[in-house]
Design a protein that fits this description.
The protein has 286 residues and is mainly α. It has helices at 2-34, 40-52, 56-69, 76-89, 93-106, 113-127, 136-151, 158-185, 189-202, 209-222, 226-239, 246-269.
């Protein structure tokens, strides 16, 4: 009986130590896996999986490791691009523009450079505010889209870039036009004319060029510069023959003609200055 009890205890001890040994082996294996150095491709794959799952913070962590530790790898440019893309999707547009710029400057031979240029411009496009606010980001976006077109004229996204440039120019024109209208309401007609001229000079192909030309003629009429106003209005009729603003233009034309007639009448009523026809008395010597 004693032998049987001893045998049972030994079995329990053996099972216990066997369990501990197996646990140690498993922990050791797990530790080995945890400390295993992943390759650039494996890190990039983890980043792409997180990116596809819209876990952009996780993707940023993985892509950052690749871009910093594996700069010479074949996936380095892709990692840098998707690092920027992750920032873009998080609407961190300033940081995204910075990351796209790193790819453009440090990996100029990458086939992703053209797309990075377009997306860098798109960061500033997304930051472009309403027309009544400061338009620095709008101007920056225009510059970046123009650079993209200049460097990659055959890219399929050129038409999109051109359309966005037109959209941004229209926003800048709107801001100048609205400034002009503000001065019109304040009856500062010279200042108003300055902003309408800005639209006509810089954004002549925008939707705001048409009303700016009419309003310029109006400011000249208010300043009683009827001859210049008439010439400006004539340009409006010639350039925008089918304009929806034509009734306003015709009304202004009537007012200008009335002003010209009044100006002519006033000139006729004004007497000519008297000429001194008296003879000079010759001075005689003393």
């Amino acid at each position: 009986m004693l032998n049987r009890l001893l045998e049972n205890n030994l079995k329990k001890v053996f099972i216990y130590f066997s369990f501990i040994a197996v646990s140690v082996v498993m922990v050791g294996c797990g530790s080995s896996e945890a400390t295993k150095q992943l390759s650039a491709e494996e890190r990039f794959s983890l980043g792409m999986n997180a990116f596809k799952d819209e876990d952009y913070l996780g993707a940023i962590d993985e892509f950052k490791v690749v871009s910093l530790q594996y700069q010479g790898s074949r996936v380095a440019d892709s990692a840098q691009f998707y690092l920027a893309e992750s920032r873009f999707h998080r609407e961190e547009y300033i940081l995204a523009a910075f990351e796209y710029d790193i790819l453009i400057r440090t990996m100029p031979a990458s086939p992703l450079v053209s797309r990075a240029r377009f997306k860098r411009a798109s960061c500033y496009f997304e930051l472009s505010p309403k027309s009544f606010l400061d338009q620095n980001y709008s101007r920056k976006a225009i510059d970046e889209y123009q650079a993209f077109i200049e460097y990659h004229p055959a890219d399929t996204l050129v038409s999109v870039a051109e359309q966005r440039i037109s959209e941004l120019n229209a926003k800048l024109a709107q801001k100048d036009f609205e400034n002009g209208m503000t001065y019109m309401h304040m009856e500062y007609y010279k200042a108003a004319g300055y902003y309408f001229d800005m639209v006509l000079d810089k954004y002549h192909d925008s939707p705001y060029a048409e009303p700016s030309l009419l309003r310029k003629a109006e400011t000249l009429a208010y300043r009683k510069k009827y001859t210049e106003a008439k010439e400006t209005l004539q340009k409006f009729f010639e350039k925008y023959a089918a304009s929806t603003l034509k009734p306003d233009a015709e009304k202004l034309h009537t007012e200008i003609e009335s002003g010209l007639r009044e100006e002519k009448t006033n000139k006729q009523k004004t007497p000519e200055p008297m000429k001194d026809t008296s003879k000079q008395v010759p001075q005689t010597g003393g």
